[in-house]
Amino acid sequence: MAQLERVPDGVDxxxxxxxxxxxxxxxxxxxxxxDRAVADRLLALAPDTRAVARANRAFLARAxxxxxxxxxRQFVDLGTGIPTSPSVHELAWEADPSARVVYVDNxxxxxxxxxxxxxxxxxxxxxxxxxxxxDLILADPALRATVDLSQPVAVLFLTVLHFVTDEExxxxxxxxxxxxxxxxxxxxxxxxxxxxxxxAVRRLHxxxxxxxxxxxxxxxxxxxxxxxxxxLVEPGLVPVQRWRPDMESVPTRMVVEGGVxxxxxxxx
Length: 268
Ligand SMILES: C[S@@+](CC[C@H](N)C(=O)[O-])C[C@H]1O[C@@H](n2cnc3c(N)ncnc32)[C@H](O)[C@@H]1O
Fold this sequence. Notes:
Layout lengths: L17 H8 L7 H13 L3 H21 L4 E5 L9 H8 L4 E6 L2 H11 L5 E5 L5 H6 L1 H6 L7 E5 L11 H9 L7 E7 L5 H11 L11 H5 L6 E2 L5 E2 L16 E7 L6
Parallel strand pairs: 1-2, 1-4, 2-3, 4-5
Antiparallel strand pairs: 5-8, 6-8, 7-8
Helix pairs in contact: 1-2, 2-9, 3-4
S-adenosylmethionine binds next to helix 1 and helix 3.
């Protein structure tokens, strides 16, 4: 049972947060009763939700090792989440301890944790910002001090774009970043897919209506449009368990699709 839950400044513990629901699904401790209630409802309906959250983290790790092998040493992780090991900087440092990482999240709890964890490391910074405002993020002095956008960069959108609706311009956000990425850069995207179990999706929508944890489940074709202007690397956009798997996995009723795209030579 809960020790008395301490709520940092700026954090609203009365409304579920996607970062904290996800933290609970991954077995973390940085969540409140309201987040656990949403996650428990979801787990009751689709018990493999926890498995798909873990599969998404495993996809992140495999994609990062691919990017390391491609020589990428700068990363912008949009919608970072509460720190979960291995984090993006830990994976980047497997290849090069001088790799640079910018974390971006609009949840103050994520920034508080990252600052506490990484305060002394000059190669990693965390920006409290909304990915729906890409221009503000791109102009942020902390981003500019950490990564050099005249060099290849990987921009990560891992299970975050489903918190941005079509009306809010989810596809335009990716396109805005693409316009800033020199040839040889990469984008990594994963998103809840409309091919998920419809009853679980319906109940999840009911449980999270009008909260920041509400998700847009997109059909495969709409997800593929995120990669417009990029070359999808093999095996393309697939359920995350099937992206260059390093172990056997079972399909899940909740589906997250993921892929990696490269900026072609002609795009700037
Ligand atoms: C499901 S977690 C994903 C964490 C990590 N990217 C992963 O895939 O393991 C979604 C994260 O995106 C953040 N987020 C949601 N909407 C956002 C927005 N509009 N701007 C910035 N961050 C956002 C949440 O606070 C949360 O930390």
